[in-house]
Amino acid sequence: MKLYELATTPNARRVNLFLAEKGITVERVQVDVRAGENLTPEFRAKSANGRIPLLELDDGGYLCESVAICRYFDELYPDELALFGDSPLDRARVEMWHRIVELDGLIPAFQAFRNLSGVYRDREHCVPAWGEESRARLQAFLPRLEQRLGESDYLAGARYSIADIAAYVLIGFLPRLDISVAELPQLQRWLDRLRLRPALAGC
User: Fold this and answer.
1) How confident is the model over 117-161, as pLDDT tens digits?
2) Helix (H, G, I), strand (E, B) or coil at 191
3) Single pTM value for the model
4) What is the pLDDT of residue 192?
5) Torsions phi, psi for 29 (to 5 deg)
6) Which of 14, 26, 173, 179 has the greatest number of CB atoms lying within 10 Å of its CB?
7) Helices 66-76 & 10-22 angle (0-180, nearest 10)
8) CA-based angle 100:153:181, to the nearest 5?
9) What distance in Å separates the CA atoms of residue 68 and residue 73, rounded to the nearest whole number?
């Protein structure tokens, strides 16, 4: 298998942290997204959404979307971590918090960055006002994370999960938007706990 990625992007980081937790190694191929390598006919013939990360399977097929790739590896290599949950209720709670982080955190963060920085202005219409609104929505979401982490060691409950990985990636993205979480003590304690995990060391 091969993983096509740009390692510094949030969705690639989500897959990489997930694989690191499970101790899985896979060949990586870096794709220069800013130069538009993902927009070439050759790449788009492989990727249903024209984005990275993209997993090339041994049978010649492909999987895109970071969570789909994580689910595939989780099913392929089941272990005691159960990063998607280990019971019907646990899996539902992981899914719930993962979606909350995606819809109320990661998507606004991406929209804010793309529209305010204009990083892809050569291929999309940037709307600075929408960037500011997305940034404000993201800032309004952070106190909800703070409240939740005051109630539970991890987002979905007592166990670390892919929801925490997604939130960790989100927090790592915030400096690009000049947003700080230094004054959120519960979130800081959660970050300190996560940084003790070998898979996240230095990430």
Assistant:
1) 988 888 889 999 999 999 999 999 999 999 999 999 999 999 999
2) helix
3) 0.94
4) 94
5) -125, 120
6) 14
7) 10
8) 65
9) 9
Q: Is 98 exposed, middle or buried (0-12, 13-18, 19+ CB in 10 A)?
A: buried
Identify whether the C-beta of residue 53 lies closer than 8 Å to the C-beta of residue 66.
Answer: yes
Beta bridge partners of 28: 3
For the chain, how far is it from start to end, CA to CA, in angstroms? 24
3 DSSP assignment:
E
* Residue 7 confidence class, pLDDT cut points 50, 70, 90: confident
Between the alpha carbon of residue 162 and those of residues 3, 4, 126, the distances in Å are 19, 20, 31
Gap between the Cα atoms of 166 and 156, Å rounded: 12
Count of helix runs (H) and strand runs (E) in the chain: 8, 4
Tokens of 18: 């997930």
Domains of the chain by start residue, with CATH: 2-76 (3.40.30.10), 88-200 (1.20.1050.10)
Structure tokens at 41: 């006919």
DSSP-assigned letters across all residues of 5-28:
E-TTSHHHHHHHHHHHHHT---EE
Q: What per-residue confidence (pLDDT) applies to 201?
A: 79
Contact, 21 vs 62, CB < 8 A?
no
H/E stretch holding 129 reads helix 128-151
Task: Select from 183, 149, 179, 150 the least CA-distant residue to 167.
Answer: 149
